Amino acid sequence: MILDLERFVAEGRPRWRALEDALRAFEQDRFHRPSFEESLRLFDLYQHCAADLARLQASQPEIATYLEALVARAYTQIHSVRRRTPLRPLRWLTDTLPATFRRQWRAFALAAGLLLLGCMTGVALLRMDVDAKAVLMPFPHLLNDPAERVKQEEKDRGKQIAGHQIAFSAFLMTHNISVAFLSMAAGMSFGIGTILMVFANGLDLGAVCADYVQAGQAKFLAGWLLPHGIVELPALLVASQAGLLLAGALVGSRSRLPRRQRLRSISKDVFTLSLGAALMLIWAGLIESFVSQYHEPVLPYDAKIAFGLIELALLLWFFARSGRKRNIARNEFE
Amino acid sequence: MSARYTLEIRLPEGVTFALPLAGPVSRCLAFLLDFLVISALTTAIQRILAAFVISQQDERALVVAAYIAIWLLYGALAEYFWNGQTLGKWLLGLRVVDAAGLELQFYQVAVRNLTRAIDLFPVIGLAGGITMLCNRRVQRLGDLAAGTVVVRNNQPPVPNIEALVKGRYNSFLQHQLLCARLRQRAPAQAGAIAIDTLMRRDRLDDRARVAIFDDLAAYFCTLVEFPAEDTEQISSEQYVRNVVEILFLSGKRPALAKTAVSITAR
């Protein structure tokens, strides 16, 4: 091909500049919705510049570098979906989150199985060796005799936390959310980190349960843990479900897709599940601070247990049924 | 493309282009700057809380909560609303983009920021650092999970070839037949190298510059031999400038006929 370079640059420069100006408008406002004519013009300029790049690429590295950067920016704008999707948090919560959970239920079942295994191991270890309590208990205040703690808590009537509930719940929320996100992120260690975290949580939970049941404080334990734990534990499992999804995409034993595409195909679900877990932990943090820390005679254990069971029923309904009909109708329509 | 790390994307139009990827060092520096920003924000919140009459226990809990919240939200929100940039990335001219060159989605920036904890594991970002070094696209684990890469955010100016030879007398143009023969014989790649060298001349040290221009001039001499009286009095660099003018520019000098260059499509 014969090319008069000076003429080529002179002719191309106005449309390169025009494309730069058009791109600037698009890039400055990511929600900018172009008119049909504006879109056509951008596409036309992009195609011209791509053609210019194709002609110069092999022989003119300096000009090609300039055009490559320009075409790359235009490509991003041309090939992306620029749709002002209305923010529908309620629909996301009632439809998208439970639908994603149901679609990826196997990962959740695996996480729940691991937690159960950890619980059973915790119970077995504490029964075999009572001295293991010092190693297994997650917090120092759990090392004392459960009966003594119950006596102290009932005598205290929640005075320790009175006036500090908001700060305490904010701390619980952020701390638990960061732990949940860590469990999700640990999926990138081929799932090893996530598996260990879920198992370790199960181990702690099993040990605490065994200790309080052995001491005859099962009712206190249920009243203390159920109101917040019935949401907190599933939240951890949902975050771990996201982590196991990542791990599954990394390993990819059943898929012929390349690793990058496997990860790409599940990253939206990972985000949905992680955000869902975070919302559940916000609720759990509030309940732990305002309900779980108050014991008899301030709050009767039966009432706390009933509250926890109602939460469980709602949670089961939410993940099993919420948005199901609407999702089926939408899929049929599409 | 001179960058060491590049992301090649092939367009449906059949054109391939390369985005310059950010190296591990510049990414680490950007992260350190962002860490300073997060620390400054947390300190500011701590000062504000201290102004209110609350207990030390509450203050500590709220500061920890604020730190975690800022840590989780700062990167995701900044990158989504500011074209893939945080303050640290903006200062170092970096930008997060979709690994396929498409527009960045919110779930992508969220996932890459929420998975940062595993990149920092066990200390000072060892897991993320090793992943970046073992990865052709310089992606940390969070980038792999989200399908993103970090690129250098630069739009180079349109190069001005005319300025390279402006204001210098080109004695070779008197020999139109030899000029035509040079245009016929010089491969496109050789011309491209000559332009590239002229554009980078100020970035080369003196010895290297002289050596490169000597080599180029010697190469062009083997293609066409101009009369000795025109070549003896000029430096190798001027020789190369004359050749570039013959190969690439036309219509500006009276002695110059229509100039053309052979371009071979990749």
**Count of DSSP H/I helices of chain A:** 13
Radius of gyration of chain B over all CA atoms, rounded: 27 Å
Tell me what portion of residues of chain A adopts beta-strand conformation. Answer: under 5%
Instruction: Please state how the strands of the largest beta sheet of chain B are arranged side by side.
Output: 1-2
The largest interface is: A-B, 75 and 78 residues
Task: Report on this structure.
The complex is a heterodimer of chains A (334) and B (266). Chain A is an all-alpha fold and 334 residues long. Chain A has two domains: 5-78; 90-333, no CATH class. In chain A, 78% of the residues lie in helices and 1% in strands. Chain A contains 13 helices and one strand, in the order E-H-H-H-H-H-H-H-H-H-H-H-H-H. Chain A has helices at 5-28, 36-56, 61-78, 89-103, 105-128, 133-136, 146-156, 165-185, 192-214, 218-251, 259-292, 301-321, 324-333; one strand at residues 2-3. The longest helix of chain A is centred in the C-terminal third of the chain and has 34 residues, at 218-251. The two termini of chain A are 49 Å apart. The mean pLDDT of chain A is 87. With 266 residues, chain B is mainly alpha-helical. Chain B folds into two domains: 6-152, no CATH class; 162-248, no CATH class. Chain B has helices at 24-51, 56-81, 87-91, 106-114, 116-120, 126-133, 141-146, 162-165, 176-185, 188-199, 206-223, 228-231, 236-248; strands spanning 6-10, 16-20, 94-98, 148-152, 261-262. In chain B, the strands form two sheets. A two-stranded antiparallel ribbon of chain B has the order 1-2. Chain B has a two-stranded antiparallel sheet with strand order 3-4. In chain B, strand 1 and strand 2 (16-20) form a beta hairpin. In chain B, helix 1 (24-51) packs across helix 2 and helix 10 (188-199) packs across helix 13 (236-248). Chain B is elongated and about 90 Å long. Mean pLDDT of chain B is 82; it is low at 251-266. At the A-B interface, strand 1, helix 1, helix 2, helix 3 and helix 8 of A face strand 2, helix 2, helix 4, helix 5 and helix 7 of B. Strand 1 (2-3) of chain A pairs antiparallel with strand 5 of chain B.
